[in-house]
Amino acid sequence: LVEGGVAAQTEQCLKNIAAILEAAGSSLQHVLRCGVFLIDISEFQEMNGAYQRAFGSHRPARTTVQAAALPGTGLRVEIDAVAFIPDEGDRRDPGGLSTGRSGRSGRSAAP
């Protein structure tokens, strides 16, 4: 658990998501949608500042709701994300939405 409140926890959540996406061949710039769950909706502005810093000019669709509880003592925020894995030529160009693949399985078949 990261100390420092909802902004620090948001930053760490998004770093974790970025690491998962990078391992899969994607990035935060290919996120299509996020779901944000806050323990206290009054912390929205603090969370939003960290969220905006992480995504920069990219603005994926987002829902933010107040949750009654999160699975861990001291957790202030939880974030889920849906992203696509771009084709090879689009990996450096986040504008390549039309040629990216979504819903791709982690399994591959031998020829």
What letter string, H or E per element, gives the SSE order?
A: HEHEE
Please provide the count of β strands: 3
The share of residues in helices is 25-40%
Radius of gyration: 15 Å
Total number of helices:
2
Ends apart, CA distance between termini: 44 Å
Q: What is the average per-residue confidence, as pLDDT, rounded to a whole number?
A: 84
What spatial order of strands do you see in the largest sheet?
Answer: 2-1-3
Task: Give a summary of the structure in a few sentences.
This protein is of the alpha+beta class. The protein has helices spanning 6-23, 44-55, and strands at residues 31-38, 61-66, 77-83.
Describe the structure.
The chain is of the alpha+beta class and 111 residues long. The chain is built from two helices and three strands, in the order H-E-H-E-E. It has helices at residues 6-23, 44-55; strands at 31-38, 61-66, 77-83. A three-stranded mixed beta sheet has the order 2-1-3, with helices on one face. Strand 1 (31-38), helix 2 (44-55) and strand 2 (61-66) form a beta-alpha-beta unit. Helix 1 packs parallel to helix 2 (44-55). It is elongated. It starts with 5 loop residues before the first helix and ends in a 28-residue tail after the last strand.
